[in-house]
Structures are given as C-alpha cells and as structure tokens.
Amino acid sequence: MKRRKLDVAAMPGRTARGLDERFNGATPLRKLLNKVFPDHWSFLLGEIALFSFIILLITGVFLTFFYEPAMTEVIYNGSYAPLRGTPMSAAYASSLNISFDVRGGLIMRQMHHWSALLFMAAIVVHMMRIFFTGAFRKPRETNWIIGSLLFWVGFLAGFTGYSLPDDGLSGTGLRIASAIMLSIPVIGTWVTSAIFDGEFPGTIIISRFFIAHVLLIPALLVALISVHVGLVFTQKHTQWPGPGRTNNNVVGERMFPRYIIKQGGFFMVIFGVIALMGGLFQINPIWYFGPYEAWVVSAASQPDWYVMFLDGSTRLMPAWEIHIPIGDGYVIPPLFWPTVVLPGILVGLAVMYPFLEARKTKDYRSHNLLQRPRDNPSRTGVGAMALTFYIVLTLSGANDVIADKFHISLNAMTWAGRIGLLILPPLAYYITHRICLGLQQHDREVLAHGVETGIIRRLPDGRFVEVHQPLSSGHEELEYAGWVVPKKMNRLGALGPAIRGFFYPIEKPAEAPVSPGHPPVEPLPEREKIGSGDQRS
Ligand code: HEM
Ligand code: HEM
C-alpha cells in the first residue's frame, strides 16, 4: 500500500480548515482579528488594571496551595525565631510559613500585595482618564456604571485579602469593619452577628472571608470585567480627534498582528515590574505585627492606600451621637455617617454623573470623540473638586503619622482636615476652571496670532515686539467638540513633537486602518457650545 507523504508545511492550513469545517469559527475570528483599535497611552490604563488582575489571579492561586483559612489556635514552630512558641491562629502561622518556609512564597505574597495596590491605582487613574476626557458620555454610561461597581468590588477584594493573614493589622481592620456594621441603625447588630457568627472576632470570619476572597469576589470581578471589556468591543473605543478621525469611524491599529503583540509585550512589562517590586520591596511584613490582640493595636496602623479615605472620614467626623427617643431610647453612633452614608453618597453621585451632566448641558447625543480637559472647564473643575476631597480624606487617614513625624498636635491635624475638607474642594474647582479658561484663551490666541517664537525685534520707531509665526497652511484645523483647534498648539522647542504626540496624538499613522466603526450619529453643529466650553461663560 502506498503511504501518503506527510506535508508538514500544509499542516497548519489543513488543521485550520478542519477546525473551521467543524466549528465555523473563521468568520467571527476574522472580524475580531481585523478589529481596529485607536492608540494612545491613556488607553493603556484600563489594560494595566486588567493585567494586574490577571497577575492577582495567578499569584493568588499559588498562595491558596499553602494558606490555611482557619482560626484554630496553634503554637508557631516555623523558621521565624522571634515568634516561635507563640500561640496564634492557623491562618497567621500559615502566612508566616508562606513567607519563611515555602520556596518562592514570600515573593508570591509580595507580588500578590503589590499587584493589588497597582490594580486599585490603575482603576482609579483609568477612571480619572475616562472622567476628564468625557469618555463616559452616551453611549458609554453603562460601562461607566459597571466601572464604578468594579472599584467597590476591587475594594472588597483588597479588604478581605488584607484580613486573611490574621496578623495584628488584619485584626485591627476587621475590628473597624465590625464597628462599622454595628453602627447601622436597626439591622446593625443582626448583620454583625450573622457575618461573624456571634460576637467579634468569633472563630469563623477568616474562613468566610477566604471563600469570599478566592471564589465569590474573583468570580464577580471576572464577570464584571468580561462585560466591561466586551462592551468596549461592541461599542468600540473612543478616540482623540485628529485628521481623518470623526465621530463615526475608528482610526488605529488592527487587533492582529500589531495590537495583540503590543498588548502581549505590555503584559510582560507589567508582570516584570510587579515581579521586581515583589522581589525587591518589602510589603506587609506580617511577622513584625504579631498575632491580633485587641490591646496591642498601635498608632500608625494603616490600611492599604485605597481604604485610607474612609479611615480619614472616620477620624474627621465629630463625635455627634443622635439620640432618638423611641422605646428605651435609640442611638445612631457617629461612625455611621462617614463609613456607611458617605460611601453611599459617593457611589450614587459617581453612578449618576453621566446623566446629571447630560441633563445640565442638554447634550443627549452620542460622543465617540474625546474632549481635552480644558474643553469642558466645569467637568474638569468638578473632577478636581472630587479629587481634592479624596486627597484630604486620604491624608487625614494618616493624620497620626503626620502629626508624629512633623511634631504637630493631632487635634490640629483633625481640625485642619475638617476645615480643609470644606474649603479646599470648592477652591480646587475655582482654580481648575480658571486654568481651563486660560488654556482655551491661549489656544485661541495661537489660532489668531500664530505661535510665539521667543524672537524679540526692535522696530524702527523703537518699539519691541515678539515675532509670531503664523500657523502654516499644512496645519489642518480639527473639529473639537464644536471648537476649531489649530493642529499646532504650543511651541515646545525640540521636545515639542514628542510632548505634543504624547498628550495630543494628532498625527495620523501611515496607512492606519480605518474602520467604519460606530453607527452614524448626529453631526456636531459648527462651533456649538457644549456645556460651559465657552470661555466667556
Ligand atoms: C477592574 C477594573 C477595570 C478594568 C480591568 C477595566 C478595563 C478597561 C479596558 C481594558 C478598557 C479599554 C481600554 C481603555 O480605555 O483603557 C476600558 C474602557 C473603559 N472603562 Fe474600564 N476598567 C476597569 C474599571 C473602570 C472604572 C472604575 C471605570 C469608571 C468608573 C471604567 C470605565 C470605562 C469606560 C467608560 C471605558 C470606555 C472608554 C472608551 O471607550 O474610551 N472602567 N476599561
Ligand atoms: C482583585 C483581586 C484580588 C485582590 C485585590 C487581592 C488582594 C489581596 C491582599 C491585599 C492580600 C494580603 C496579602 C498579604 O498577606 O500581604 C491577599 C491575600 C491573599 N489572597 Fe488575594 N487578592 C485578589 C485575588 C485573589 C485570588 C483570585 C486568590 C486565589 C484564587 C487570592 C488568594 C489570596 C490568599 C490565599 C491570600 C492570603 C495569603 C497570605 O497569607 O498572605 N487572592 N489578597
């Protein structure tokens, strides 16, 4: 019998054809691989969040092999001599073992913790980019809401993870959480005893938090992130205005091969940075804190950075108890307002913002082109105000450390925080609004008089003038939320092209693929005012 010769070169093609005949994948796959993505550094922030989440999953699974989620008391007998012979929970002992006795355990713990910090930081900065560029506007309000939920689910992931090692800091955090739950009127006691299975700390909270941390919360995050990124695919990404870019198309790179290779490389970079941090920089050295004992909590016990604003709001809240004379009398403790009501308001405001802005500006159209922060001074001012509010609260979360290091009275710090929280946000709004208007005026001046050259000329009559270089005809004008903006904005010397490209990518890449992207939207009326984009308002 004659055997057929094995044609290695034809194998990939044959396999692909075989797979397509069975699963009909070629058409959808071609569509996916040909998808065009706009390119800008600020679009990488969401990716940093995504990649650090993947690293959290990988390192978290490793930790799960060695971590013991139990509060049964054991006597520590591992390698860390100062704690040998100390009674502690099995959870704390296993975390110490991961740090000292499991091969590669410490770097994995530290990578897990650093990536958690990076994950939350990336989420917050990504959220700021979405806000300040107006990417949350119609049709992307749903993704903004899903994003806002992602922040809080990430917050819970971080908090439950921080509690797992069951060291002194974990216990302090859990104690505060139980106090917050207890402060909720009517249901507080029930909620607390249901979660802790009786009085704090009980014997079950660590195993419950473990299930939440390694199963429920990651599952929720995976589901929400899938819908979030799925929506970015179906709604298509926004882009900065530029030559050839309109509200109805997408200009950028195809998914395959360039975009996918770039993303793969970027993932490696993020992984490498986190591995370096996990290997070189100590984080959460739980062996210094000892097992949790309520009476050894010290000053300078700090949560991770993204929880500090709530710590700050608790510290700034005056000790106002509200007594309600029902039955034997009822008390609402002051803790309830800064830790339950305030986050509730913050979530509500964030979720509502796209709709509030659309209502205020009466702009209900779809927007696929981004705005620069200066183009919408009111929004940028509101963002600066919110950011200042968070920064004052976060700094107040460390007010004991600041008071101690700078020899300031802690009471003075508390009062500075209270006054700062009321005065600084409106001030930030005012200053930011003015800066935006100033920048707009500058743009207009460049448009009218050209670019400053720095060359001073003396005229025959003795006057000095600065020579302005008119914008050349090659500098197309771009439609920008109704305003006409010159392509060349600032004279930045030799750094100019680099910096301009970084902040304001107006060059069309050679042979950039253009896809018909978005469904047609109503055209922008010429020079229409959007929001308070009018500098004379
Ligand atoms: C786990 C957290 C998150 C992950 C992994 C994530 C991931 C991403 C990715 C990969 C993109 C596309 C690339 C980009 O524009 O950066 C994106 C876009 C987007 N994200 Fe997120 N994100 C997260 C949280 C948030 C939050 C907190 C918000 C806002 C509250 C948000 C709102 C949006 C919106 C509106 C878009 C569409 C932007 C556009 O088309 O210009 N995301 N997200
Ligand atoms: C967004 C997701 C996650 C965040 C923000 C997060 C955050 C954290 C943090 C801050 C810690 C404390 C680390 C330390 O001891 O210094 C921790 C511990 C831990 N995490 Fe996660 N984590 C996440 C996902 C996961 C996943 C998916 C798993 C497993 C499947 C996991 C398993 C663990 C385990 C076993 C510990 C205890 C390790 C120890 O003893 O230190 N985590 N997590």
TrEMBL record:
Cofactor(s), names only, from the UniProt record: heme
UniProt keyword annotation of Membrane present: yes
Keyword ATP-binding annotated: no
Residue ranges, annotated region (Disordered): 512-537
UniProt keyword annotations, A-Z: Membrane, Transmembrane, Transmembrane helix
Reaction equations catalysed: a quinol + 2 Fe(III)-[cytochrome c](out) = a quinone + 2 Fe(II)-[cytochrome c](out) + 2 H(+)(out)
Residue ranges with Basic and acidic residues bias: 524-537
InterPro entries referenced in this protein's UniProt entry, alphabetically: Cyt_b/b6_N, Cytb/b6-like_sf, Di-haem_cyt_TM
Ranges that cross the membrane: 41-67, 113-132, 144-164, 176-196, 208-233, 264-283, 335-356, 377-395, 415-432
Record EC number: 7.1.1.8
Residue ranges annotated for the Cytochrome b/b6 N-terminal region profile domain, each copy included: 15-241
Name used for this protein in its record: Cytochrome bc1 complex cytochrome b subunit
Organism expressing this protein natively: Micromonospora fluostatini
